[in-house]
Description:
alpha/beta; Four Helix Bundle (Hemerythrin (Met), subunit A); Rossmann fold; 2 domains; 7-stranded mixed beta sheet; about 40% helix; about 15% strand
Amino acid sequence: MTQALEWKGSYLRIIDQTRLPFQKVYVDLHTIQDVHHAIRSMQVRGAPVIGITAAYGLYLGVKDFPNDHISQFQDQVAAHAEYLKSARPTAVNLAWAVDSITNKLRQLQITDVEQGKRFLLEQAQALHDDDRRRCEGIAQNGVPLIPQRARILTHCNTGALATGGIGTALGIIYKAHQNGKEVVVYADETRPFLQGARLTVWELQQAGIPVTLICDNMAAWLMKQGHVDLVLVGADRITRHGYVANKIGTYNLAILAHHHKIPFYVAAPISTFDFQLEHGDDIPIEERDCEEIRNILGRCEVAPANTSCWNPAFDVTPPEFVTAIITEAGVIETPVSENIRQLKENLKLTIH
């Protein structure tokens, strides 16, 4: 299976996802500035994988830091953490990754810079391995929800390109396929960046899973015709009351699924939960450049150059439209808000 990123000993190698599916191009990231640019420009994207990328970025930011400046080392790491978090504000995994590592570093009370550097690299690698395990857990818990010969509608990209493992929502689909369930996938194109058309379709084709591409505005009619058994999406941030921030267009699907009485499932690791936030209105929504709308991938103009645009990258789905949230720790069913609280207590979660 394709890996979104790979640590090469002294630098990070990623697949440039802006070039897929037309070209499979690898980009080597040697500095923290390279990492920030890769996240911001969406060369690497998907909530779990940008958290992993940022973790490696912390190390790259200090790997050449002078060893005789121990008093300034912690301050430098903290500044790098804020810089990396500014790349994309909505996906909580990014902030969770760098904050959890910097908090552990402060508690470590390091005595020399080399020790701190080793710690940062080890933490990034551990985070990478941890996400692989989380993806497997999500897949295992999600497969029982997938009926035989299920027709699944998905949005954006939630596979190996978006995570450190087999994926979240797509990971469940991969596992169901491996278990002999004859699934068929409908993939939204996911305008304006076309992650569904470019990435999800490509991944599923590589895996030999039947996939049909549709335009975003065809989903309602597809459901009306009875061709969708369930909707399965990922998430970039989930509040403690179950509001789900995900790629723009997810809210549309949730409303449509609710109207047509179709299960709407969200697949996400526990690291995607932000227990400090209560309501969806509290989630910061990234707004991107209008050129992404006026042009298709910078290749083809579809509107006059002076056209005013609004380009939020995410929307928020309220919990009443969510049938269940599938995590590595179990399936959170309705009432989502109460069951999130119970899961948090059971796991003694203190993150966020």
